[in-house]
Structures are given as C-alpha cells and as structure tokens.
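[audit] Reproducing an earlier prediction to check determinism. Same input, same settings, fresh worker. If the tokens differ from the archived copy the diff job will pick it up downstream; this log only records the rerun itself.
[audit] input (243 residues):
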Amino acid sequence: MTFLTVSELNKEYPNVHVLDKICFEIQRGEFVSVFGPNGCGKTTLLNILSGMDNSYTGSVKFTDNSIRKAFIFQNSNDSILPWKNVLDNLRLDNQNIDESRIKDVLDELKLSNFKNRFPYQLSGGMKQLLAIARSFVFECDIIFLDEPFSSLDYNMAQTVREKFLGLWQKDKPTIFFVSHDIKETILLSDKIILLSKRPAKIKKIIEIELPRPRDSTILTSKKFLEYEKMILYEVENENKIED
C-alpha cells in the first residue's frame, strides 16, 4: 500500500539548485534509504519529507494526513532532554503514555537497567538508543533518520544498528534513512534511492531482495556483495561523468 508519493520535487537556494524533479513512492512499512555523494541533497530531501523544510516546489503527499512522525538526528544530544532521566525522556510529560509499551521497548533495547539514569550517565550509544526508543514508544508511523550511527565507533554502531533493526522488524513503521555507508545502507534497506551529484536527480532505485531478519553475517554473502558492487559502479560512474 502506497504511503508516500513524491512528484516533481525541486529545491533551490539562491544560486544553488539542490534537488531536480525527484519522483518516487514509498510503501507503508518499507525501509527506504537515500544514498549519494556528499553535498548532493540527501539531508535536504529528508528535511522536506519530514516537514522541517516547506520551501520547495513539487508535491509530497502522504496517504493519511494524521500520521505520527519521528526524527532521529545524527547527534542524540539534539533530541534528548538532559534534565530528564531515561523514563521521563520517553514519557515526555504525556499522561496517557502506555507504560507497558515503554517497558517492552526498554527490554528490547537492553536499557531497562538504565531507566533511572540521566543522559550524562549514558554512553553515546545508549543515548542514541534512547532517541530510537522514543520513536517506538510513541508508535510513530514514519521515522526519519539522518546518519544516526555515524558518530559511534564501529562496534557500538553495529550494536545499535542491529537493535534498531530488531525493533523495526517487530513494529514495521515506515523508515526514511540517510546514510553515507554503502554496507549499512544495503544491510538495512528494502529500497535504496541513489542520487546523483547536485543538482540531484534519481540515478537509480534499487530493490534489496535479501532475506530478513538480517544481521552482520549477511555482509559477506554473494548477493550482498553483488549489491555493493552495483552501487559502487554507479558511484564511480557518477564521478567519471563529473570529471
């Protein structure tokens, strides 16, 4: 079922054309990533779809106008409240919050033992898990993520990614994800929107037909390596065109 339709989307700043006639559809529950060169407009596209940027031409249409959205930033400090502990960061003063839902999400993310701690008492990975937890506690229909694992070291990023993926596979909210990591993008996604250099056009939309559930063991599979080779070819070809 189509959840979001983007048609003829253009974005310009003074003297800079960022997005050029972007068109695609996202299905409900789909995990969609956008990948492309640095500065091509990935985060700009994310901001437009999430409603943080309304200065564009073209059309962005959700099938339901009452959807709940969440945004997970690259830096967890941009979203969590330092004066509230973990539990209160999840409740956000909402008197009707489902406490059993909070417990389930904390258990799934292995954060239950830290529920009374404050953000300054948490590691970077735990703070990012807290930001992730909130979007699932409120059962958002779509979650926007802007390189949420890039500030973490390799092992912690892998741990947080797999816990996030586990929660998504249970609840299946729609995901729109920005990444600059090819392996991460293939591992997580159902669909990858590959953008060109600025002004960004869609070079290709790649359907990722790898079995779920997925974890890091799939990174060396033949099919995974084929997808990686395909994307690398498109990126390298883009660079040659630019040269």
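[audit] rerun output stored. Observation attached for the diff report: The mean pLDDT is 92.
[audit] end
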